[in-house]
Write a structure and sequence with these properties.
The complex is a heterodimer of chains A (187) and B (396). By secondary structure, chain A is an alpha/beta fold. Chain A contains 5 helices and 7 strands, in the order H-E-E-H-E-E-E-E-H-E-H-H. In chain A, strands 1-2-5-4-3 form a 5-stranded mixed sheet, with helices on one face. Chain A is globular. Classes of the chains: A alpha/beta (187), B mainly alpha (396).
Chain lengths: 187, 396
């Protein structure tokens, strides 16, 4: 029930074809199509995805901080092999069928700037502002990168893995107790 | 006439023309204003009665769910995600839990899927009733609110009888739904199913809702004052709606008949028969009308689901301590307000490495500066209200 065929058959076939046509590497997992592209090709690839592939609907844009330096939460599975970087991802989808793809590009931490796509999708402006707030990534060409969620004068970027969650610093959370050491139950 | 008089006239004309040079006035609306459904501030520049530009200031309710998710287990997150859009709590839980189920490979039993479908539709009715009743209030009509909220109460009673909560059910579990009541082993045997008589009560309530929607039709839809305030006001063409990522009824009112329940569903929507309601105008009236019709469609979906719901268990076996394998998944669902999705990056372990929440109202509100530009100040509340946003959903 969970797998619906999209216009081109399975999501694997769709993702592979899309990556071939637009240039990039496709990874398809759990029906989620991820297309990894170069940072330089960010704007052009998204434009072509919109104009040539029918992915006209701008769903969202966000960032990820791949970091060994984790202040709170779990770290990555193999921290030694981690390549420190930001990733910016943008999800576009069709408004006629279930076609959709996640476009992901690597943004180095020492040069955290990427082209803005506000010219392609007006809705991207707020998402880019949010990503700028949360990760400090700059979007070249965005007309207004002022803080959207954070108050004026806020220092730091809260979604960076190195940013501590102050509530947890002050008082450790007892939540782990809830899910461990429960007696075995019969079904 | 004396020369003095003419000089005086000339001087006064100069004075008048100087005075007539107008300057845009900055009008601050909010953050606490009844029409903002939470705390939203609008900084509007107005030129007389026209709005020349508007800058929404959001973030007053930013609670940082994406950061909080990184320190919480998947099971703990369901209690939080239904607080993002509090008018449709259950509907925002479902995509999250399905995303976790996809990552872990646990599939919920069919009966649980159908109950998820019924509850999602009940929350859709509840959310749309809040809109169709409070929107006339924003336009100055008080009566529909009392009529409609009385019927919404019946839906909330059903939700409460099933889940124990009216707004924040926290009813989804990985692999199914929570058994209706807790308790010891003996009680568990009898309480492993939905409350007795619940389906019959739901059928009766849906028939009342259909009747109440007819009432709303006569009371509001044909009302000349409502029509005059909303027809042709705040028009969003389809291509602009797509570009800004508007979804749900806001998109469908602009002539784009796209509904995720038809295209990318994770609940048995293919086994029920319903129409995707859409309108061509893209104005405030159409956005109201689409939602009102969707109440009917949802009630019909629930009536069909009551007939089709199979017997069986409510929950698949899932480990107590849920370790989610490494992987990335995006699952979206048709929330009452539009596309609501979760992108989960799992690096193995009990907590997500990163959770991106695609909240509907954030994108739906981002068109506000575009659609309000050039609008009349008296239409501001009508346009803003017609987008049906919840600030918890905007700010996350």
């Amino acid at each position: 029930m969970n797998d619906q065929p999209d216009s081109t058959g399975t999501s694997e076939a769709y993702g592979g074809g899309l990556a071939e046509r637009l240039g990039g590497n496709a990874v398809v997992e759990h029906d989620t199509v991820r297309i990894y592209i170069e940072r330089e090709a960010w704007f052009d690839t998204l434009r072509r995805a919109r104009d040539e592939e029918g992915l006209t609907f701008f769903s969202w844009l966000a960032g990820i901080d791949w970091s060994k330096d984790v202040a709170v939460g779990d770290t990555v599975e193999e921290p030694d092999e981690l390549d420190e970087r930001f990733e910016v991802m943008c999800r576009l989808s069709s408004i006629e069928n279930a076609d959709a793809a996640q476009f992901i590009t690597v943004v180095p931490k020492d040069d955290a700037v990427i082209d803005s796509i506000t010219e392609l999708f007006g809705g991207a402006e707020w998402h880019e502002r949010e990503t700028h707030d949360m990760f400090g990534i700059d979007f070249a060409g965005n007309p207004n990168l002022s803080p959207i969620y954070l108050p004026e004068g806020f220092i730091g970027h809260p979604l960076l893995k190195s940013y501590p969650l102050l509530a947890r610093e002050v008082k450790p959370w007892p939540g782990d107790v809830d899910v461990e050491d429960m007696p075995e139950e019969e079904s | 006439m004396s020369a003095d008089y003419e000089a005086l006239m000339h001087r006064s004309e100069v004075a008048v023309s100087v005075e007539l040079q107008t300057q845009d006035m900055t009008l601050n609306i909010g953050p606490q204003h009844p029409s903002t459904h939470g705390v939203l501030r609008l900084v509007a520049s107005v030129d007389g009665e026209r709005i020349s530009s508007v800058e929404p200031v959001i973030g007053y309710m930013h609670r940082g769910y994406e950061k909080l998710a990184e320190v919480r287990t998947y099971a703990q997150m369901t209690a939080l995600v239904n607080r993002i859009d509090w008018v449709s709590g259950f509907a925002s839980e479902v995509p999250f839990i399905i995303a976790v189920e996809k990552l872990t490979g646990i599939e919920a039993p069919e009966r649980a899927q159908w109950i998820r479908l019924i509850l999602t539709e009940l929350f859709r009715i509840s959310s749309h009733v809040v809109f169709t009743s409070s929107y006339p209030l924003e336009l100055g009509g008080v009566t529909p609110l009392f009529h409609a909220l009385r019927e919404r109460e019946r839906v909330l009673e059903l939700i409460e009888a099933m889940t124990g909560g009216r707004f924040h059910p926290n009813f989804n579990r990985v692999g199914g739904i929570k058994p209706a009541a807790g308790g010891g082993k003996t009680q568990k045997q009898v309480s492993m199913d939905i409350p007795a008589g619940w389906l019959e009560d739901t059928r009766a309530a849906m028939e009342r809702i259909l009747g109440a929607t007819d009432d709303s039709d006569t009371l509001v839809t044909g009302n000349e004052l409502i029509k005059a305030r909303t027809t042709g006001v705040g028009v969003i063409p389809g291509d602009k709606a797509i570009e800004y990522g508007l979804s749900g009824p806001n998109l469908r009112a602009s002539g784009v008949a796209y509904d995720l329940r038809k295209h990318e569903f994770h609940l048995p929507y293919d086994q029920v028969d319903f129409n995707v309601v859409s309108a061509e105008g893209g104005d405030c009236y159409d956005r109201y009308w689409v939602r009102l019709q969707e109440i009917r469609e949802s009630a019909n979906i629930v009536l069909q689901a009551i007939e089709k719901i199979p017997a069986g268990p409510l929950r698949a076996k899932a480990p107590r301590v849920l370790k989610v394998p490494k992987g990335q998944v995006y699952v979206r669902g048709e929330n009452p307000k539009g596309e609501f999705g979760y992108y989960i990056i799992s690096e193995g372990g009990q907590k997500p490495y990163r959770l991106k929440i695609r909240s509907t109202s954030f994108s739906n509100l981002s068109i506000l500066p575009w659609v309000l530009k050039g609008a009349l100040v008296p239409d501001l509340v009508a346009i803003m209200g017609s987008l049906d946003f919840v600030l918890g959903d905007v700010d996350r």
